[in-house]
Write a structure and sequence with these properties.
By secondary structure, this protein is of the alpha/beta class. The chain has 17 helices and five strands. It has helices at 17-22, 42-53, 85-95, 120-126, 128-136, 149-159, 167-172, 177-185, 189-194, 203-219, 235-247, 252-272, 283-298, 306-315, 331-339, 347-365, 370-377, and strands spanning 8-11, 27-28, 61-72, 75-83, 141-145. Strands 1-5-3-4-2 form a five-stranded mixed beta sheet. Strand 3 and strand 4 (75-83) form a beta hairpin. 30% of the residues are buried.
Length: 383
């Protein structure tokens, strides 16, 4: 008999604002497939509260109701939020006095403007009717009961098809082992301490996904010794990579090896760079540094020091000339290195840039002329 799964979708019977606020600790607001929260501006949060108080319709909220309550992060959870995170965060934030009503708020039923600019706590004194109205407002909450988490992940993806999720957010919702590994990798000190930008819109997630993809290619036979070509990381390739792992469940050793390979390179990078390092401002250069660590480790060569990498960055500042004929050996290649930074996911561009920085750093360390070295070493590479 073929095993089947089902999903029971119903309307939550008690779904008032006050009820959900009282039970908020029992809602897992950050299940693995969720996109990041706290992306709404205060103005947009105020508009939602305005809509609720003036009885305008707002979109549905979807919760995954567990068959049995689960302990997550030390708290008993009965539901996981599938869709409506920004809306619930805005509602809970207002009731917690995090922001006031908009300065242009009008209670349409009476034309009263006296509540404008006031917080929830202030309204309890000046406008108790508005407070009771908000607390008693029923939200349109849909609960989904199933033990199949993949059905919930599929529902999340479908609900967000019309929402501008970026590629990293969509991959996080695919399911399977890779999104979990990505979430764990971005907790490594390199991501937490060294990068000078946050994980907003899953920028760290996107980097970690690329690192896994390149590492898996090397482990599965795309060896990097001798300057092998780098696979491109365009969206379709990364998405296929994640979906393939979601379909094939017996991947434990491959996943473990892949993760260990990435972690090894992250430790190398962590030792090299300083906290909030300006050398890591460019996502494209972070990819090059990771690939350089990968190549050097495969060839059993040491990774350059930060001072060497800084010297390379300074050497990239090519003087302005009227024509290419005025360029000295290596300057054209440096200009090409910069031009190809506009194609951070293209395999041939990555291969060219990785080869250039490796040749330059090697020649500089050995006391040679690194500019002449890249002019000679890259003469036959077509990008």
């Amino acid at each position: 008999m073929v095993e089947t799964t089902s999903i029971d979708i119903t309307q939550m019977r008690n779904s008032t604002v006050q009820y959900l606020f009282t039970r908020r600790s029992e809602i897992d607001m950050d299940p693995p497939y969720q996109r990041q929260g706290s992306v709404w501006s205060q103005q947009k949060q105020q508009l939602l509260i305005d809509s609720l108080l003036n009885e305008f319709d707002v979109p549905k909220i979807y919760l995954h109701q567990f068959s049995n309550p689960e302990m997550r992060d030390g708290t008993l959870k009965r539901w996981a939020l599938v869709d409506g995170k920004q809306r619930l965060e805005a509602i809970f934030g207002f009731l917690e006095n995090s922001f006031p009503l908009g300065d242009d708020f009008v209670f349409i039923a009476t034309g009263d403007i006296g509540a404008a600019g006031k917080t929830y706590f202030e309204l309890t004194e000046s406008h108790p009717f508005l407070v009771s109205t908000l607390n008693a407002t029923s939200l349109d909450v849909i609960t989904m009961r199933t033990d199949d988490i993949e059905l919930i992940e599929e529902m999340f993806s479908r609900l967000n098809e019309a929402v501008p999720l970026n590629a990293a957010e969509k991959r996080n919702a695919i399911g399977g082992p890779l999104p979990k590994i990505v979430r764990e990798l971005v907790e490594e000190p390199f991501f937490k301490n060294k990068l000078p930008f946050t994980n907003r819109r899953y920028r760290h997630f996107d980097l970690a996904a690329k690192f896994l993809y390149w590492t898996d290619n090397r482990l599965e036979g795309a060896k990097m010794e001798g300057g092998g070509a780098i696979r491109d990381t365009k969206k379709v390739r990364l998405d296929t990579f994640f979906r393939d792992f979601n379909k094939i469940k017996i991947m434990s050793k491959r996943c473990k090896d892949m993760r260990q390979g990435v972690e090894s390179n992250l430790r190398t990078l962590e030792k090299t760079f300083v906290d909030q390092d300006p050398l890591l401002n460019s996502v494209g250069m972070i990819s090059i540094y990771f690939l350089l660590a990968e190549r050097r480790a495969a060839d059993k060569r040491s990774f350059p020091s930060r001072s060497q990498l800084l010297k390379f960055e300074n050497a990239r500042r090519v003087r302005r000339v009227k024509s290419d004929d005025e360029l000295t050996p290596g300057e054209y290649e440096m200009l090409e290195f910069g031009r190809l930074s506009q194609s951070p996911n293209d395999g041939s561009a990555l291969t060219y840039r990785l080869t250039l920085i490796d040749i330059w750093l090697t020649a500089d360390k050995e006391g040679g002329d690194p500019m002449k070295a890249i002019a000679t070493g890259l003469a036959n590479i077509n990008t």
